[in-house]
Automatic annotation (TrEMBL):
This is FAS1 domain-containing protein. The keyword Transport does not apply. It is a lipid-anchor; GPI-anchor. Residues 1-24 form the signal peptide. SMART domains: FAS1. Residues 26-170 form the FAS1 domain. Pfam families: Fasciclin (PF02469). Gene3D superfamilies: FAS1 domain (2.30.180.10). PANTHER family: FASCICLIN-LIKE ARABINOGALACTAN PROTEIN, FASCICLIN-LIKE ARABINOGALACTAN PROTEIN 11. May be a cell surface adhesion protein. It is found in: Cell membrane.
């Protein structure tokens, strides 16, 4: 075998090895979310909590795959100031895990899920980490008991990982049961007008007082006249 043939064979083996390693690694959740450039907060939390490394590692071994719901930066900006920073390290991990399902769910399969849907955050019982899914045609909504989010674009889809954009951060009930949305319409509600019945009663009371006053004056006048006689 000539040196040129050996060299060509070596290049081919290196190429095949690189392809095999790439396929074995599978998708990278961080690279997927960094590409659009509008998931910087979610990416930062995925990294700081260690959920990204855990997910990328498990993607190489899982037989069922994973589904990730990714809120964009706009969704995070709609939260009350300090919402994320006020969480403990454990709560931040649970928050991000609440956005991950341990199975791939295609858009057409959401209607087959049984509520509450289990997430990587754990317990789905009432008051803990329940996630309820409702599907109508191509529209899918996710209810946490705190917020109602709508599924958006598919950012990535293969046999091992499906990533959807969601328009709200999924706030689990266990952590955010007392959360008040930043747009509190209750504070902006206009003052209510008194009920019609109240107005009628008030008017009747004034009229009654006026009538009583008139009869008092008449009575006094009659008594004075009688006394004079």
């Amino acid at each position: 075998m000539t040196k040129q043939a050996v060299f060509s064979l070596s290049l081919l083996l290196i190429f095949l090895f690189h392809c095999t390693q790439t396929l074995a690694q599978g998708p990278d959740i961080i690279k997927i979310l960094e590409k659009p450039g509008e998931f910087t907060v979610f990416v930062r939390l995925l990294k700081s909590t260690g959920v990204a490394d855990q997910l990328n590692g498990e993607l190489q071994q899982s037989n069922t795959g994973y589904t990730v719901f990714a809120p964009n930066d706009k969704a995070f900006s709609e939260l009350r100031s300090g919402t994320i920073n006020s969480l403990s390290d454990l709560q931040k991990v649970q928050l991000i895990q609440f956005h991950v399902l341990a199975t791939t769910v295609s858009l057409s399969n959401f209607q087959t899920l049984s509520n509450p849907v289990p997430t990587q955050a754990g317990d789905t019982s009432a008051g803990e980490f329940p996630l309820n899914v409702s599907s109508s045609g191509k529209q899918v909504q996710l209810s946490t008991g705190v917020v109602l989010a709508t599924l958006g674009n598919i950012l990535h889809s293969d046999d091992s990982l499906i990533v959807y954009q969601v328009d709200k951060v999924l706030l689990p009930l266990d952590i955010f049961r007392s959360y008040v949305p930043s747009t509190d319409t209750a504070d902006q509600a206009p003052a209510k007008s008194p009920p019609v019945a109240a107005k009628v009663n008030e008017s009747s009371a004034v009229s009654l007082i006026r009538d009583i006053g008139m009869w008092v004056y008449i009575g006094i006048a009659v008594n004075i006249a009688a006394f004079s006689l």
